Fold each of these.
Amino acid sequence: MIQPWPSDPAEAGRVSAVSFRGVSKHFIQPGGTRLEVLHDVNFEAPAGDIIAILGRSGSGKTTLLNIAAGLIKPDAGRAIILGQDTGGAVDWNRVGYMFQDDRLLPWRIASSNVSLALEAGAMPAIERRRRAREGLALVGLAEFAESYPHQLSGGMRSRVALARSLVGEPDLLLMDEPFSRLDAQTRDSMHSELLRIHALRRMSIIFVTHDVEEAVILANSIIMLSARPGWVHRRVEVSFPQPRRRSSEAMTLAAELRNSIGVADWKEDALS
Ligand SMILES: Nc1ncnc2c1ncn2[C@@H]1O[C@H](COP(=O)(O)OP(=O)(O)OP(=O)(O)O)[C@@H](O)[C@H]1O
Ligand SMILES: [Mg+2]
C-alpha cells in the first residue's frame, strides 16, 4: 500500500522528493553500438525544492527525467521517487511530467488535452472539465479552451502542456525545457506564474533548461551535468530571495556559471 508522502508536512525539506543513487543508463544505437548516456548519477532533491538540471545537448537530461518518471529503468543504481523505489510500486498519479515535446493529442481540444491527465483516476467528468478550465486560466489560455492544437501557436501549446502537467496537483513536477518555446515576455510571466503556484502548493519541481539565467531565477539548486555520459559535475545552491529577475547578485551568479563552464555554447548545441 502506498503511503501519503511526506506523511508529516513538517518533514517537507528534510526528506527527498527524488533520490538518484549511482544511476547509470546506456542505449544500443541502431548500428549496434553501445552509447553510455548517464554514468553514476547521484543527487538528492529535497521535498518542496525547485531543482534545475543544466547540461549540454545529449548529456542525458531527458533520460534522467524519464527515469524519474518511471518511463525507463536504470541499468544500475536506484531512483527513489517520493520515498518509493522505481523498481517497485510508485503512485505515479502524484508525479506530473511536462515533456520536451508538447505531446498534445491533435483530435482533442485544449481543455480535453488538459483533462486527459485526470482520466486515470475516479474523478467525475464534470469535475475534470472544471479543473481543466481552471488550469487553462492559470496559464492565460481561458479563451482557447475549445481550440484544437493546430489552432494554437507553439508557445500556446507549451502552456497547454504546462496546464496538463499541473492539473493533477502533483507532489513532484518534472519539466523538460518547459519554457524554451516561449518568447521572452511570456517566459518571464510563466516564471512568475510557476513561482506563484509553487508558493501555494509547495510541490517539488525538477526542470531541465539550457538557460543559465532561468536556472538562477527559479531554482534552489542547480545540478550541472557533464557532457555525455552525464554525471553530476557540480551542484550550486541558490539562496537569493525572490524576485531575482533584476537582482544583480543573481545575474552575477548566472554570468559566473556561464563563464565557468562555457555554457554560452549550450544553446547553440541545442539548436544544431
Ligand atoms: N531510446 C533511445 N534509444 C537510443 N538512444 C537514445 C534513446 N534515448 C536517448 N538516446 C540517446 O541518448 C543520448 C541522450 O539523450 P537525451 O534525450 O537524454 O539528451 P538531452 O540531454 O535531453 O539532450 P537535449 O538537450 O538535446 O534535449 C542522445 O545521444 C540520444 O541519442
Ligand atoms: Mg532533452
Amino acid sequence: MNNSGIFYKKRATDEEIETFKKFLTNYQVGDIKVADKTQLKNQSNTIRILVVGDVGSGKSSFIKTLLRFCGNERESKFVKTGEGSTGASDTVTMRHHRLTDTATTNYFICDTPGFPETTLNQDISMMTSHVKRYVDGYIRNGETVSYLFSLTDWFFGKRYADSTMDAVIFIARPPLDGKYRMNDRRLVHLKKMRQELEKTLGSRPFFFVITATDYIEMAKEDTAQDILQVFDGSIFIVGKEEEGRCMPSVEVYTELMKGVFGSIEEYRLEHRT
Ligand SMILES: Nc1nc2c(ncn2[C@@H]2O[C@H](COP(=O)(O)OP(=O)(O)OP(=O)(O)O)[C@@H](O)[C@H]2O)c(=O)[nH]1
Ligand SMILES: [Mg+2]
C-alpha cells in the first residue's frame, strides 16, 4: 500500500463519504477477488472485523471515524473514545458496530478493551491468546472483557457462531515519546506484538495499522522516516479530526477496508470458517 497520502490535511467531503457508503451498500462478499462466488468455501454474507490494541492506542477513535465515513453517523455517535490516559481502558465491553446505517448488509467492526501496558514477552503471548479467543467466538457482543481472566477457564467457555471474527486489525500509536523522539521501548514492544500476532493468527487476515499519524508529522524527519520504514507494509491512518493537523482521509480508510474485505475473500476460498 502506498503511503504518499499519509500527511493528509483536508476534511472529508460529503461526496467522498457518499462514494464509500455506496461501495459498502453494494458490496457482496467475493466482489473484489473472486470470479465465481460458488468457489467460496464460506459463503456467509456476514463479516466481523476485530479491532484490538494496547490501552488508549486509538481503537475507538478509528472506529468512530470509520463509521462516519461509512455514512453511519448515528452509530458513530455511540462510540465513546477516551479523554486521556488513565492506564485503564475506556472501552470495557466487546461491541459490534454495523458499518452501514441500514440492516441490508451484515458487515461489523468490533471494538474491544485495550490490552494493559506491558513489555514482557510472556504477557505479549498472553494477549495474543486473548485475540485468538476473540477470533474463535468465545466473547459475545456486549460482553464485559477481562484480560486478567485465566486462559485455562477458556476451555470451559463456549464458542458462539455469531461471535467469530473474519479478520483482525491491530491499532498502534507511533512509538514516540512526549517530545516526538523515538521511544525504543515502545518500538520493540510493537515489533514483538506484530510478530507474535502473525504467528498466532497464521493465515487469518491480519492488518497492522499505525494510527495518530499526525504525531509522526511532528517528529524530526529522520525519526519519521525510521517509523515509516520499520512499519513498511502497515497502514498509516489518523483517527481524530483536528483542524490544522493531519486529518483522517476517506481514501485511506476505503483502501484499508477494501484490503480487509479482499483478504477475507481470499481466506474464504480456502477455509470454511
Ligand atoms: N492526535 C491524535 N489523537 C488521537 C488519535 N486517535 C485517538 N486519539 C486520542 O487518543 C486517546 C485515546 O483514544 P481512544 O480512541 O479512546 O483509544 P482506545 O484504543 O479506544 O482506548 P481504550 O478503549 O481505553 O483502550 C483519545 O484522547 C483520542 O482523542 C489520532 O489519530 N490523533
Ligand atoms: Mg476504546
